[in-house]
Amino acid sequence: AQTVTQSQPEMSVQEAETVTLSCTYDTSESDYYLFWYKQPPSRQMILVIRQEAYKQQNATENRFSVNFQKAAKSFSLKISDSQLGDAAMYFCSNFGNEKLTFGTGTRLTIIP
Amino acid sequence: GAGVSQSPSNKVTEKGKDVELRCDPISGHTALYWYRQSLGQGLEFLIYFQGNSAPDKSGLPSDRFSAERTGGSVSTLTIQRTQQEDSAVYLCASSLSFGNTIYFGEGSWLTVV
Predict the structure, then answer these.
(1) pLDDT (tens digit per residue) in A6-17
(2) Which of B41, B56, B107 faces A99 most closely, judged by CB atoms?
(3) Does A102 touch chain B (CB under 8 A)?
(4) Separation of alpha carbons B23 and B108, rounded Å
(5) Which of A6, A14, A88, A99 qualifies as a cystine partner to A40, CB 3.0-4.6 A?
(6) By 3-state DSSP, what share of chain B in percent is helix, strand and coil, each rounded to 5?
(7) Given A42, A98, A101, which is nearest B98 (Cβ)?
């Protein structure tokens, strides 16, 4: 079975500062993928970043980057130069065995 | 279409009525997923389609829930004899194939009164 744990229900960060959202997961699959999704109040789930488990290099997308520690089964998201538009629920997810499993989410607030 | 399309976007129904929720995936996407998100909660997996077949129905909460997909495209999630605990946002997603990025629709907000 796959599990995804996000231990931070809420986080806040000052605009232009950096914030890191934590995520740990458990899976018995050898071939899997990890994602961070963002869900603003509009409730549309938007892909933020994707990491293939077989790749050692951490994925980056502009201001978003991950710290993927495969042995520790940790997949944290770093948001640099936080902007007001980054305010949303962030979900960590693990895709393996044809199923996408989500964590319970972290609500990120940006302080102007 | 350009993205995953879901209808209706909002539905209010009386307890005991049946509802149908529709999902039109991105053209060419073979994999289609249904999730349920209750207010302030995470996403609960319901069912997954590969083509027209559903290898994993383990997430369906009860036998009141069913889903089908025809022509490898549009999918319908049906909830019979709705209950108040069925109130949630029902999210549909699709991907090109296993391991590819999964794209979500905007969801169907179901309220059972």
Answers:
(1) 999 999 999 999
(2) B56
(3) yes
(4) 9
(5) A88
(6) 5, 50, 45
(7) A98
